[in-house]
Amino acid sequence: xxxxxxxxxxxxxxxxxxxxxxxxxxxxxxxxxxxxxxxxxxxxxxxxxxxxxxxxxxxxxxxxxxxxxxxxxxxxxxxxxxxxxxxxxxxxxxxxxxxxxxxxxxxxxxxxxxxxxxxxxxxxxxxxxxxxxxxxxxxxxxxxxxxxxxxxxxxxxxxxxxxxxxxxxxxxxxxxxxxxxxxxxxxxxxxxxxxxxxxxxxxxxxxxxxxxxxxxxxxxxxxxxxxxxxxxxxxxxxxxxxxxxxxxxxxxxxxxxxxxxxxxxxxxxxxxxxxxxxxxxxxxxxxxxxxxxxxxxxxxxxxxxxxxxxxxxxxxxxxxxxxxxxxxxxxxxxxxxxxxxxxxxxxxxxxxxxxxxxxxxxxxxxxxxxxxxxxxxxxxxxxxxxxxxxxxxxxxxxxxxxxxxxxxxxxxxxxxxxxxxxxxxxxxxxxxxxxxxxxxxxxxxxxxxxxxxxxxxxxxxxxxxxxxxxxxxxxxx
Length: 477
Fold this sequence. Notes:
By secondary structure, this protein is α+β, with helices and mostly antiparallel strands. The protein is built from 7 helices and 12 strands. Among the domains are: 2-212, Porin, CATH 2.40.160; 359-475, CATH 3.30.1330.60. The protein is 16% helix and 27% strand. Helix 4 (359-370) runs antiparallel to helix 5 (386-397). It starts with a helix and ends with a strand.
């Protein structure tokens, strides 16, 4: 039996020390230092011991307490509320119960030693508590009690003064945590001996508990195990990650982590209140339009002010935001106006409508021009030609947009056709020169000479030759 007890104890110790991996998940280690009390009375034995749980809290009569640090334990958190640990305790027993006649049974300060291994289960999660931690535990160990009046088993003087046996233990307890690391713990453990020569008993203890082993690299109060940003101080609501601008959006999800903003803009501000976040706003200090990347369009022509050559006048994008001009105010824009400096009509592409001479004026023009007299064989005018030239000028001036051609003709006198041709050309040009000098635009006039090739009458008679020597001013075709 003694070997079995030792085997169980060894197994428990190995388990407690060697099979742990991670007191809570943040501070996995718990060291407890305290005092303990041993009560051998309420264990279901004959007098001077009593029934189970009889006078369980009779501290004065039944609890043996060593008034010094008498218990130390070390535990390590595993997972899901479970911890494993090992403890050692020492005591002196001076109380053994109550005799049948009611007198207290005492013993002579018997030494008590115990080494125990345990598995503890925290009930904090079950009761949803943090500061107050109820717990239960089970385990085993080995306990030695010095032989005395009520536990003498020696048969000879060479026997050991200590009675030792393995025990099976059950624990209930309660801890109160002042902080993540410091608390006070109290527990009661029932120890059931594997051997009759070691009495069953209760061991009660109270101690100061210290949790440690957790790492908080960035000092933000969130242990690295649960800190998604262990190198940067952060906030608990963001699992240890920072919110640099304090806008309620953690930096990793904040497009503008240094500027307090709005969730709808992924943490970026909208300084000008135009509904475009500053990171997407080309004009963050001026309220503008989403379609123009947050920039204003004062004249609502679809072009942002900064790109609009005429920001206060609506105009097409093709003209840099400026309206098309109509310099002559004729209703035809300059870009479409063939005569941008002259008022015209839409039908004539912005140019003035051309008013042509009436048939009567055309006939009059030809008749006048045929009476222009030149010096014989020359292109110079005779004196009586000027009134006629003035009359022709007046008619051409009345039709400022009409174009005319001046034709020169000769009779067949002479034997040199080239001379007649040149003479007709010079006389036609002479009339053009006069008209230009008297205000008729040169670009409205043209001249041509036909010599003797287009006679009006027969050159066989003097009257016919006279009619053939002529100049004609006609409407250009």
